[in-house]
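TA notes. Do not distribute before section.
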Amino acid sequence: MAIEARALKRSRTKTERTGARSIPKMGLNRRSRPNKPKAQLPKYSTLVSLIKALGEFDLITDASGTVVGFWASRRPRYGRQFKTVVGTRLDTLVEAPVASEIQTLVGLTAARGRREELKFRVTVRGVQRSFSICAVPLGLNESGVSAFCLAVRDVTDRVEAIRTVAEREAFLAKVEEIANFGSWEMDLKTNAVALSAQLTKIYELSPREKWSRETYWERMHPNDRLRVRRLTSKALTDGRAVEYVARYCAHDGRVRVHLAHLLPLLDENGKVIRAMGVIQDVTGHADSDQELRRLSQQIMNEQDNQRRHLARELHESAGQSLAALKMTLGQLREAMSENPELAPSLLESAALLADSTVREVRTVTYLLHPPMLDDAGLGPALRWYTKGFAERSGICATLELSEPFPRYSQEIETTVFRVVQEALTNVHRYSGSSCAEIKLWHERSTLLIEIRDRGCGFPPAADPLERAKLGVGISGMRERVEQLDGEFEVNSIPGKGTTVRVALPTAALHGLAQGPRTSSAFRP
C-alpha cells in the first residue's frame, strides 16, 4: 500500500508538471489582455521648445522629409518613443511654422554658400544658455524639398568668450585714449601695418589715408631718422625690445615728441616675423614733470610743517598737561599713606588736569577732521571753526551764511571746509591782518565762497617759486576746487589785502533756496 501511494503521488506530480499549460487559468492568458494604444510623439510648436526638450541634437532627413538619423544630448519626456524618431517624417515632430523656419535656414545656407545659423537664449533648468541652430543642405529633389542636417549646439561658452574679448578690446581702447598712446602691429613679410584707433588720432590721419612703413619714416624729424633707423634695425635683427624718443612732423608743420616702444615677435625657429609696439605723445611732459616735482617738493615741505605743528601743539598742550597729571598722581600716591588729608585736593587737581588734557586732544583731532562736518553739516562746522580760529589767533574772524543754508554732498562740504581752513591759516601766517571775513551764499545751482583779509597781500605777477613759502596752500585749494569742476580765483593787492573766491556748481541735498543768477560766477 505504501508503495502504491508513493507511485500515485509521483504520477500526480508529473502530470501537474507536464500538463500545467493545458489547464486554462482565468486572467493568465496574455492574448486575452486588451492592447494599449501606442503613444504619439509630441509636436513642437517653436524651436525654443524643441531645444528645451532635446538640448543639443543632430537630426538628418532625406529628400522626402523622413528622419534617417537622430541624436540628442538629453532624453525627452516621452521616454521609449525617443527611439522611434528615426523613420518618422519631420512634420510629425514639429509643427508647420517650425518646419518652414528650418527650410528657410536651409535655403539661406544653400544660396549663400556658407553656413547660416540662428541663435536663441533658452532657459534650461533655471539657467540662461545660448544655443545655435544651423541647417546644412544635403540634396534637393524635383519638388524642391531638401535633405538636410539640422545641428543644435550649446554655444554659451563661445558667446561668453566673444563677449569677454569684445569687452577687453573696448577696455584697451579706452586705456589707450586715457593714457594718450596708440598701438601698432606689422607683418615683416608683407610690410602690412595695422594701427589702433587711438594711434590714428595721434598721427592725425584721415579715415581714407593709408599708413605704411615708408610713411612713418617720412613723417619722422630728419635729425632723428638715422638714429631711430639704426635702433629699430638692430632690435629686429637681435629680436630684442627697444625704446626711443623721436620727433614727429604733423601736416601743419607742428613738431610733436613721441615715446616709442618696439617689441619683435619670433616664430618657433627664433626668427622675427612680426613686430608690435606703442606710441605715446609726450609733448610738453618736460614742463609738466618740472611742475610736478615742484608741487611734490611743496607737498613734502607742507607735510613736514604740519607734522611739526601737530607735534608742537601736542607737546605744548596735551604733553604738558599729561606731565603735570603724572606728577600729581605721584603726589597723590604718597599722600595716601603719609598725609591722607591732602589726598582730596590732589585728586581734584588730577581730575582737572585730565579734563584739560581731553579738551586739548579733542581740539587737535577736531582740527584734523571735525566730526561736526559729517554730523551737522558745513554751516555749523564753519561756525565752530571760525570761533575757535578767532580765539586761538586773536584775529577778528566773521562768518556770514545765507539763510537757509542747506546740506551739500560730502565732497562739496569737505572741499569748502578745507578751502576756508587753508585760507584762514594763510591769513594768520602771512597777511598780518587783524580781521578776516568769510561769506558763503548760493545762487541757483552754484555755491559761492569768499574769504577776505586786510593784510599785506602779495604781488599778483610774482613768480610762483618766490611764493613757495605759502606751501601748497593756493595750489592745493585750486586743485580741490577744479576736481569738482569749480572756479578758483585769488586777487591780491600789496598793502590792501587778499581775496579768495570759489564757485562750485552743485545742487543742495535739502531745501536749496533759488536766487537770481548773475552773468558771472563771481560777484564784481
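Switch to the second chain here.
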Amino acid sequence: MSTSSASLPGIPPGTTGTLAGRRPRDLRLDFFRGMAMFIILLAHTPGNTWTLWIPARFGFSDATEIFVFCSGMASSLAFGAVFAERGWLMGAARIAFRVWQVYWAHIGVLLVTAIMLFAIDHFEVGLEGKRYITGPYVVPLFTKTGEALIGLFTLTWVPGLFDILPMYLVVLAMIPMIMALHRLAGRWAVFAFVLAVWSAANLAGYARTLDAETALPWQQAVAAFGANFTWMNLPSNPFGDHTWFFNPFGWQLVFFTGFAFGMKWLPAPPVNRWLIIAAAAYVVLVVPFAWFKIHKGIYLPEGWALAAWITETRAWAQPIWWKSWVGGFRYLHFIALAYLAWCAVGPKGIRLNEGFRAWSAGPKWVLLAAGAFLIVSIPYTYIDEIKWLSPALDRWFFETIPLIDGDRIGLVQLVHLVPLIIVAWAALGARGRQWIVRDFFLMTVPIIRKVGTQSLAVFMVSIVLARFNGWVLDVIGRDVWTRAAVNLTGFGVLIATAYIVSWFKSHPWRTRPAAQTATAEAQASGADGRGNPRLAAMRA
C-alpha cells in the first residue's frame, strides 16, 4: 500500500504516494537552467567577444551557480520521493546510479575533446604555430598516458574546463548523507552541516592561497586554523600540486540551497518591494568590483583615488568573492540575482506562460535627448571599425576631434547603446514592442525549457562544441559576422541535441503509430466477438 508523502518529513506536500505521481517540473527550473546552458557555451568558446556581455562580467556569480542551484532543485524533485517511498537504501542506490552516469559523462567528454584537439594538431588544420591540446591543457594524456589515465579515472587529474562534472558528482554523492541527517535531526541540522562544510572549505582555501610573508598576524592565525581542513582541497593534477578549481565542499552550499527549496525545507521567498530594492542595490553595487573595465581602471581616469580604492578593495576582499570555494559575497550575489529573477517571472512562473507587458516608449523629450546623443556619439561608436579599416584615419580622428580619450572609447560605445535602444524601442511601435515581449518571448520559452530538461546531455555537447567553435573562428577569422554565425549555430546545435535526446528518452520504438493501434484493436475486437463470446460480452 502506498504512503502519502504529506506525512513524510522533507517531502513536499501534494506529492502522491507513488513515484509516478511526483510533482511536475517547475517551469522556472528548466527555463533558467536552459539559459545557463547557452551562457556556458559562450563562456567556454575561445576568443568570443560575446562573453563580454554575459552576467559574469558584471557580477561575482555566473552561469555555474544557475546550473548548480537548478540541479539541486531538480535533484530534490527527482530523488526526494524515492527516499520517502522506497527507503534510504533505495534512495542512496538511485543517487549512486546517477553518480555513475555523471562519472562516465565526465570521462567521455574529456576523451572526446582531447582527441578532437589532438586531431586538429595532428592534421595541421588549425592556426599555424598553435597547439590546441594546450588549451585546455590535455597534453599529459599524450605524453604521460598511463599516469594521465589513472588520474582521469580516479578523478585526481581534472584539467581546467573539465572540472564542473566532477564537482557535481561529489555533491550528488552527499545527498544520502543529507537525507539521513534530515531524518535523524531535521532541517536545521542539515542547514548547520551545510554551512559548517562550506565554512571549512573556505578556510581550507584561505590557508592554501594566503601569502605568509605579507600576511598580518590575524590572517596567519586564520590560515593556521584552516590548515586543519586542507584535505578538502582535492588534488587535480598528479604531476603537480594543483587542486580542483570547483571545490565541491564549497559549491555544495549552492546545490543544497536549491535542494532545500525543492524539498520545501526552505519556504518560497515573499515578493517584497524592499527586498527587491535591496537585491537590486547589491547587484548594482557589485558591478565596479566585478567588471574588469572598471576595477582595472580602463573606464576611470588614471590617478583617481576611486580607481585605486576599487582595485585595492577587490584584492583585499578576494576570499569573500572567489569562485573556487564560493565566497560569501559571491553566494549573496547569486541569491540576489535569483530573487530578482524569481520576482520577474511572477508567481509560479506565470510570465513564462503569458509573456510580459511592453514598456511604453517614454516621453518625447527622452526620445529627443536620446536621438541627439546618438548623433553626437556615432563617430566614436564605430572607432573599432575605423581602427580596422584605416589606422591613418584612426590617428586623424583623435588628433582632429580629441573630445574623448581613445583608451575609454568602449565606455562611449556602451553609453551609446542606451539611447540607441530607447530610439529603436520607440520606432517599433506599440504592436512591435508587444510582439517582442509576449509573442516572440513565448515562442522561445519552450525551446529554452527543452534545453534545460536535457541539461546533462547538452552540457556534454557544449564542452566539445565550445572548443570546436573556437577552432572554426581561428580558421574563418573573428569579426562581428563570423562570431554571430558561429555562436548562433552553436545555439542551434544545443537545441537540436536537447530535442534529439528527448526523442530517444521517449522510447518511440515501444509505441505503435495510432493507425496501427486502432487496426490491432479492431482486429482483436472482431476476433474476440467470434472466438471468445464471454470476453466480447465483458467489453460490451
